[in-house]
Design brief:
Chain A is an alpha/beta fold and about 450 residues long. Chain A folds into two domains: about 280 residues, no CATH class; about 60 residues, no CATH class. Chain A is about 25% helix and about 35% strand. In chain A, strands 1, 4, 5, 7, 8, 10, 12, 14, 16, 18 and 20 form an eleven-stranded mixed β-sheet that branches. Chain A has a ten-stranded mixed β-sheet with strand order 3-2-6-9-11-13-15-17-19-21, with helices on one face. Chain A starts with 7 loop residues before the first helix and ends in an 8-residue tail after the last helix. Chain B is of the alpha/beta class and about 250 residues long. In chain B, the strands form three sheets. A six-stranded mixed β-sheet of chain B has the order 6-9-10-3-11-12, sandwiched between helices. In chain B, strands 2-1-4-5 form a four-stranded antiparallel β-sheet, covered by helices on one side. A two-stranded antiparallel ribbon of chain B has the order 7-8. By secondary structure, chain C is of the alpha/beta class. Chain C has eleven helices and 23 strands. In chain C, strands 5, 6, 8, 10, 11, 13, 15, 16, 18, 20 and 22 form an eleven-stranded mixed β-sheet that branches. The longest helix of chain C has 17 residues. The chains are: A alpha/beta (about 450), B alpha/beta (about 250), C alpha/beta (about 475). Chains in contact: A-B, A-C. The interface between A and B is medium-sized, with 26 and 33 residues.
């Protein structure tokens, strides 16, 4: 008889399996395909378990603290008092707003502006209960679960999220704001927002996403967002992760891009004790313009990790990644960017930069910018820097009469500003500009940077 | 206004300036010409206070004060302005914000009230016309994405706003086409006043067709080897730097 | 473009010129690895007890380890029990006392490789230690170097003659626990070179080791140790070739460098192990651990490598910058052609204050070659005011190859700065056209462009090696040397 060792991750998956069985037995009203999707997610999670530092893609980010949390999926909507969403960032921007409390759509707090014909902005649970055809076509078809235990876990346990559908040729003038508020105080309370954004050919839309909380608990947000973007569509996505400093935030962002589309995604991270964004883009048509732009500001024991794969699967596409990090105290900023150019993807122009500024000797920056190239007629570059402010810039400012400390402050603001300036949605850009200005000005270490 | 006495300086032990003497009085325009590597840009950098240069001998007095003891921003506030040969791009720093901060730092130093946003804007708009700059210029980050010519015009525009006593133009003509050169030179000429002075550093004579110097100095191998009026520049243009080199080789 | 493509193909399709086999009588250990084999190796080499103990500890540790999976290379599993771990040309009687007694066939072998060992034909200004399979067959200029107190000899001789130095320094830079192949090497290493440069001595000539794998089904596991005492300087060269065989052969070497205060070690490699044929059959698996320790203040270690051979290269010459103001450098050209795979790069570990490192890596991929740069730059908290600059460029010749860049950067200090830049490009039609327009033939244009691409690295090589590198890449150096 053959003896098999039980892998660590399977034992680890036990409480999740138990929770899943309870959850699945209550989900009788769901269409069958969703049940299948959930099962595939759970099976994948059981198989691979949480990643460890030995896993090359996670070598700088230890998720053991998440694995150790008691698993308390927030499966039911909040009863009773709902939070006031108006005080949060982006809430005053004129937009169609879907508000989610603990991962569940809160129609009382949401408002959708009149939309052009055929456009839909709605809660995922509603959509699935009414007409699931669109969701069925795309949900889970893009995000890759093989290597991503968290996305698998989301697939097993998601209850709600946003569904945005912009039909061909339609332009939505006001931004769509998805606001996720956590009010759960229990340690390990976990929301699994699941979003699907479909922008058909020649459409145009701006999506703002923000993650906030009213509490300081060690809750866990485990989000998955799938973007399906058609030919010649223009889409801007701006995510602001401003979770509680004790919280955990993991998000998968999967982009499937059609030819000639123009896609820009911003990831601005200031919150959470541990945050990780897995950003995967597949450039599946020719002449795509894709920009991934990001900024992280960390302090205390925070860890902010951005992990992205930009896959050039067709010729004549341009992709740019710009990520800046400002790290203070004992915090850590991780950047892992991989540009993958398939043999067919000739005439690719791909650029990647990651710059980090340390405000304290106890902070750590890890950068892993990678090129993996199988086509010969391409222009690919990457650059990463960790260090101080540019001396020539400081001199230039001083030579115009600005004192050294002010010059340094200006350059630190500029370090954040060069990322924020790429946000095209003006009210969002101005608001984030103010947020960063204030937070940097509050920081006592900013004046000491050399 | 400026007195440079036997200035010797270098970088990492390599001597570049080997005893420069130069005196500039208010109301004058001086040109320093010289071949590549003669030390022209080093001279400009030292006057503006860039780090990394060692002064081994000599003295620089600016309005009677030891210039070399001053921080770069102190020099700027005392009215010394360097138009950079290669203005650095500072992405993320808005041009208006930058220039307002600079102007107010200088005004404060002079004991003048700081300008508010409106006053500043009307001043700036007036000066922009001088340099034929487009309005969107101010909305862009400092020098970021500017063409070579735009960067140089931006330098002279800043000079117009900051109204220095002593302006040092370091190879301002390099990288400019003839139209841009004319605009830049006209800008510089209009800023000339009896109480200020200009030091024009250049490789070629052509800028001096537009900015007429009172004095021309030839910098060669770290020394000023010849001084004269504006006709010296023409002679140099005609005979080339080889003429100086040969002459130096003979006298050496 | 078709002419350009053909020329590029002609350029990369060069025959391996060192693929001959020397028929000498050898004495080999039976294939397989166990403690008895290790005892046998140790006994053959008449080693002191401490070394045998060290080998056995390494072997026991190796048994607990697994091969690293992270390199971007693929190969069938290696059966470590099928390899012979010791092979030496049979000695006549007590073995050669001088080169005159060495088997003439061996001397011929080195002559064919362009490395004459006989007294009258020696390369001027280069002292050579020639290693044939598992043993050193001779070292030139030994006596002349000894006059200045420089020890340059085979590792085996060093064990016999300078056991204290070996004991003091062996394994301090690369401990036997370091990695799978280093552990294997520590257990079974056969020979290699040993250099010791005393305090204040500037070594008057290049020291060189020429490694040759000859026997079939053997692995080569050499070990090199270079110690530069305070204020000393040495430039060391390493060359490698092997016969053409259809089977893969394993080469797992370890090189340790130690530089004390103000000492400088310059280590250059031209690696030309048999790369396998056009179909990817045969070739050497070159799994090597090379590491330098800048232990002293103001010390400097510089690695320069030109990697054109081997079926698979797995190698990261590294520098630990421990002393304040220490300098580490890595200059590399790696060419992969046919089915060759290279996963190579460096590690720069900054510990001391004001430490500086520079990385310049040039990867050229042709045919189905896969070329990866993998590097780590780590700035510890203690390494105030440290700097790193890395430049990694890849050039692709043809559309079936791959070029990859995997840098890892970790900084824990606010006063330091790290810059990494990488580019990937091909030889552009416009570049070739430009050269054509100026009267150059396409072949010359390709040579010139490849040469220009590698220039920053070639200029770091000592003259003799630059010439060899030129031959290897089949390009004219066009004034890039000197």
């Amino acid at each position: 008889m053959q003896t098999t060792m039980i892998p660590e991750q399977i034992k680890q998956a036990d409480p999740y399996l138990a929770a899943f069985e309870r959850f699945a037995s209550n989900g009788a009203e769901e269409p069958q395909w969703i049940g299948q999707l959930r099962k595939s997610g759970m099976a994948r999670f059981s198989e691979i378990g949480f990643p460890t530092l030995r896993d090359e893609d996670w070598r700088f980010t230890n998720v053991a603290p998440i694995a150790r949390l008691p698993f308390r999926p927030l499966l039911q909507p909040v009863r009773g008092d709902l939070p006031d969403p108006t005080g949060f960032n982006f809430a005053k921007i004129e937009s169609s707003r879907l508000v989610f409390v603990n991962g569940h759509f809160a129609p009382e707090l949401s408002r959708v502006l009149p939309l052009p014909k055929g456009a839909q902005i709605t809660g995922m649970a509603n959509a699935l209960a009414n007409d699931g055809a669109l969701a069925q076509k795309h949900l889970g078809r893009h995000v890759r679960l093989e290597q991503n235990a968290f996305a698998a876990l989301n697939t097993a346990f998601f209850t709600d999220g946003a569904l945005v559908f912009i039909p061909a040729g339609v332009e939505v003038p006001q931004p769509v704001h998805l606001l996720y508020i956590t009010t759960a105080t229990e340690t390990g309370a976990t929301a699994h927002p699941r979003n699907l954004i479909v922008a058909e050919r020649d459409s145009r839309v701006t999506i703002l996403e923000s993650y906030v909380s009213t509490v300081h608990g060690a809750y866990f947000t485990n989000a998955v967002t799938e973007f399906v973007i058609g030919e010649h569509a223009t889409v801007e996505h701006c995510k602001f992760q401003d979770e509680s400093p004790a919280a955990y935030h993991i998000a998968a962002l999967q982009m499937s891009l059609g030819k000639n589309c123009d896609f820009i995604s911003h990831s601005i991270a200031t919150g959470a004790k541990l945050s990780r964004n897995n950003i995967n883009t597949v450039l599946g048509g020719e002449h795509i313009e894709c920009v991934l732009n990001g900024l992280y500001l960390t302090k205390d024991d925070q860890l902010a990790d951005h992990h992205m794969i930009v896959e050039h699967a067709k010729p004549h596409c341009n992709s740019h990644e710009y990520y800046n990090g400002i790290l203070d105290d004992r915090s850590r900023g991780v950047f892992h960017g991989r540009i993958l150019v398939r043999p067919i993807a000739q005439k690719t122009d791909a650029k990647q930069t990651n710059k980090n500024l340390l405000l304290a000797d106890t902070a750590t920056a890890n950068a892993k910018p990678q090129l993996e190239i199988y086509a010969d007629d391409v222009k690919c570059t990457h650059g990463a820097t960790v260090g101080q402010l540019n001396k020539d810039s400081i001199f230039y400012l001083r030579a115009r009469g600005i004192d050294a400390e002010t010059a340094r402050r200006m350059l630190i603001h500029a370090f954040a500003g060069e990322i924020i300036d790429r946000i095209r949605c003006e009210p969002a850009r101005e608001e984030l500009d103010r947020v960063f200005w204030d937070r940097l000005e509050e920081n006592p270490h900013v004046a000491d940077v050399k | 206004m400026l007195e440079i006495k036997n200035l010797c300086a270098g970088v990492e032990g390599r001597e570049i300036l080997k005893g420069v003497d130069l005196t500039i009085t208010a109301g004058e325009v001086h040109a320093v010409m010289g071949p590549n590597g003669s030390g022209k840009s080093t001279l400009a950098a030292i006057l503006a206070g860039r780090e990394g240069y060692e002064v081994t001998q000599g003295q620089v007095l600016y309005n009677g004060v030891d210039l070399l003891e001053m921080d770069p921003e102190e020099r700027a506030r005392e009215g010394l302005f360097l138009a950079f040969q290669y203005p650095v791009e500072i992405p993320g720093v808005n041009s208006t914000y930058f220039l307002k901060a600079a102007l107010n730092a200088i005004r404060k130093h002079r004991g003048e009230p700081e300008l508010d946003a409106l006053e500043f804007l009307s001043l700036v708009k007036e000066k922009m016309k001088l340099l034929e700059l487009r309005e969107d210029f101010l909305k862009r980050p400092v020098n970021a994405g500017f063409s070579g010519g735009e960067k140089k015009r931006n330098e002279i525009f800043q000079m117009a706003v900051l109204e220095p006593k002593l302006a040092i133009l370091d190879e301002t003509d390099s990288g400019l086409d003839i139209d841009a050169l004319r605009v830049v030179a006209e800008g510089v000429n209009r800023l000339k006043r009896p109480d200020n002075a200009q030091l024009v550093i250049t490789h070629y004579q052509r800028l001096l067709n537009y900015i007429i110097p009172d004095f021309v100095h030839v910098l060669f191998d770290g020394r000023i080897v010849r001084s004269g009026g504006k006709e010296l520049a023409l002679e140099l243009e005609e005979k080339g730097y080889d003429w100086i080199a040969k002459h130096e080789a003979v006298t050496a | 473009m078709s002419t350009a493509t053909e020329t590029i193909e002609g350029f990369v399709k060069q025959e391996y010129k060192y693929g001959f086999y020397t028929d000498v009588e050898t004495e080999s250990a039976p294939p397989g690895l166990n403690e008895d084999i290790i005892r046998l190796i140790s006994r053959k080499k008449n080693e002191p007890e401490f070394l045998l103990e060290w080998r056995l500890k390494a072997f026991r540790h190796w048994q607990t380890m697994t091969e690293p999976l992270w390199p971007k290379v693929t190969h069938p599993p290696i059966d470590y029990q099928k390899i012979s771990y010791y092979s030496a040309p049979k000695k006549r009687g007590d073995g050669p006392k001088s080169l005159d007694e060495v088997d003439p066939k061996l001397l011929e072998t080195y002559e064919k490789l362009g490395i004459p060992l006989r007294e009258r034909e020696r390369l001027a200004g280069v002292a050579v230690d020639a290693v044939f399979d598992s043993v050193s067959v001779g070292t030139t200029f030994k006596e002349k170097l000894a006059e200045q107190g420089i020890i340059f000899c085979s590792f085996s001789d060093a064990v016999q003659e300078h056991p204290d130095l070996v004991k003091k320094y062996l394994g301090i830079v690369v401990p036997y626990t370091d990695n799978f192949y280093a552990a294997l090497n520590s257990a079974v290493f056969s020979d290699g070179s040993f250099c010791y440069i005393p305090k204040g001595v500037r070594c008057p000539m290049e020291l060189s080791t020429y490694f040759r794998i000859n026997a079939a089904n053997t692995g080569q596991f050499e070990r090199t140790l270079i110690v530069a005492e305070e204020g000393s300087y040495v430039s060391y060269l390493e060359g490698c070739t092997a016969p053409m065989r259809d089977e893969n052969q394993l080469h797992a070497a370890v090189v340790e460098l130690i530089a004390l205060d103000r000492a400088e070690i310059k280590y250059s490699t031209v690696q030309n192990w048999y790369p396998g044929d056009e179909q990817g059959r045969g070739g050497i698996y070159n799994f090597v651990t090379k590491r330098g320790l800048c232990r002293g203040r103001n010390s400097k270690i510089s690695w320069t490598q030109v990697e054109t051979g081997s079926a698979i290269t797995w190698k990261y010459p590294s520098v630990i910058l421990q002393g304040d103001n220490a300098i580490g450098e890595f200059y590399s050209v790696a060419l992969t052609n046919n089915y060759q795979q290279a996963d190579t790069g460096t590690k720069m570990i900054h510990i001391g204050k004001n430490t500086r490192s520079t990385i310049v890596s040039k990867g050229i991929s042709a045919g189905h070659g896969q070329n990866s740069y993998r590097g780590l730059v780590k700035i510890q908290k203690s390494a105030e005011n440290s700097r790193n600059f890395s430049q990694c460029d890849s050039l692709l010749l043809g559309d079936r190859c791959g070029a990859h860049t995997f840098p890892y950067i970790e900084v824990k200090n606010t006063t330091s700065s790290v810059e990494h830049e990488a580019t990937t490009s091909k030889i552009g039609e416009d570049q070739i056209f430009y050269c054509n327009q100026r009267g150059l033939e396409t072949q010359d244009a390709v040579n010139m462009i490849v040469n220009g691409f590698c220039k920053e690295v070639f200029k770091e090589l000592p003259m003799e090696f630059a010439v060899e590198a030129q031959k290897l890449l089949g390009v004219s150096l066009e004034g890039s040397v000197g």
